[in-house]
């Protein structure tokens, strides 16, 4: 374990002239501007970013499963991103058997006050496997185990 501890203050990376945090109002179900991390991911990883969409004001980025760990490492370490908190790992299995299972990571950049939902789609008939992000986020340990226990991923 590291001997140093750095306190992260919400919004500290935004600078002194940043607006105060505010609850969004009248957020549409879909649409809206994605947070700046989506464009940064597309620039950095190109084709590994399959789609970006905004749902209820939250940015969702669907990425290639074989590049997931590389993307997560970059989001965590890149000074312009600083996603220092993994709040959840889960999966979604839809009733339509033809629709792929989605594995979902909820990331937060406290320093930039950003939320990002990363998704990997696992098409029907393919292996239910994705890389572990435990080496980046130790909190992934039990979350990944739960995902395995509930969905076999």
Enumerate the spans where pLDDT stays under 50 for 5 or more consecutive residues. none
Instruction: Work out the helicity level.
Output: 10-25%
The gross shape turns out to be: globular
Structural class comes to alpha+beta
Secondary-structure element string: HEEHEEEH
Instruction: Tell me, rounded to a whole number, the average pLDDT.
Output: 92
Count of separate DSSP helical elements: 3
What's the N-to-C terminus distance?
29 Å
**CA radius of gyration:** 16 Å
Largest sheet: 5 strands, mixed
Number of strands: 5
Please provide a written account of the structure.
The chain has about 150 residues and is an alpha+beta fold. About 20% of the residues lie in helices and about 25% in strands. The protein contains 3 helices and 5 strands. It has helices at about 35-45, 70-75, 140-150; strands spanning about 50-55, 60-65, 85-90, 100-110, 115-120. A 5-stranded mixed sheet has the order 1-2-5-4-3. β1 and β2 form a beta hairpin. The protein is globular. The mean pLDDT is about 90.
Quick overview of this protein structure:
By secondary structure, this protein is an alpha+beta fold. The protein has helices at residues 36-45, 68-77, 140-151, and strands spanning 49-55, 58-63, 85-92, 101-109, 114-122.
